[in-house]
Amino acid sequence: IDGDDPGQQVVLDRLLDLLLVSALRAAFTSTTEMPKWYAASADPIVGSALRLMHERAGEPWTVTSLASTVGVSRAHLSRRFHDLVGEPPMTFLTAWRMALAADRLLEPDTTVTAVSALVGYTSPFTFSTAFKRHYGTSPRSYRRAHSA
Q1: Within 10 A of 131 (CB to CB), how many other CB atoms are there?
Q2: Concatenated DSSP letters of the chain
Q3: Is residue 104 a contact partner of residue 115, using CB atoms and an 8 Å limit?
Q4: Taking the model in full, what pTM does it have?
Q5: In the prediction, which pLDDT does 26 show?
Q6: Per-residue pLDDT tens for 70-81?
Q7: 97-114: per-residue pLDDT in tens?
Q8: In angstroms, rounded to a whole number, what is the distance separating the alpha carbons of residues 68 and 92?
Q9: Nearest-CA neighbor of 101 among 86, 120, 83, 79?
Q10: Contact of 64 with 74, CB cutoff 8 Å
């Protein structure tokens, strides 16, 4: 850990990633209170949809486009997603986008416009409205309150 060999920081970063993932896996599998989305990620249909939403949050997803991408009908994806995750796909996607946005807003040089585009909003105004509906405060107020 104290070494300064070439690539040391990369090794430490990956080690931290490994430890974090291992700890989360252990915590989620050793409790009956694991998040529903975590258990649903093992499902071939819902897991694929979750991975798409997590990896490509900025895409203009609809239930129809998600269902088409994972190879099932819109109704089947909606029903299965709700049964396993406990909420509709678009509700989950919105919450995921807002969580990503909240994290990015804490980066000092990131603008609200850049964050809105990153999480799939075509306008910073519609993003700000959605963010305020979700967190009860504007993106700028959130940044000020959580950066201090």
Answers
A1: 27
A2: -----TTHHHHHHHHHHHHHHHHHHHHHHT-TT--HHHHHTTSHHHHHHHHHHHHTTTS---HHHHHHHHTS-HHHHHHHHHHHHSS-HHHHHHHHHHHHHHHHHTSTT--HHHHHHHTT-S-HHHHHHHHHHHHSS-HHHHHHHHH-
A3: yes
A4: 0.76
A5: 77
A6: 999 999 999 999
A7: 999 999 999 998 899 999
A8: 18
A9: 120
A10: yes
How many Cβ atoms sit within 10 Å of the Cβ of residue 102? 18
Using alpha carbons, select from 142, 38, 44 the residue that is nearest to residue 92. Answer: 38
pLDDT of 55 strictly over 90? yes
Dist CA 57 CA 117 (whole Å):
10
HSE-up of residue 136 (Cα within 13 Å, Cβ side): 1
Find the mean pLDDT for residues 42-65: 94
Per-residue pLDDT at 115 exceeds 90: yes
3: tokens are 């070494």
What does the block give as tokens for 35? 């998040």
Q: Please report where in the chains the tokens 């974090």 appear, as a residue.
A: 20
Q: Are 35 and 50 in contact (CB under 8 A)?
A: no
Q: To which residue do tokens 């040391």 refer?
A: 8
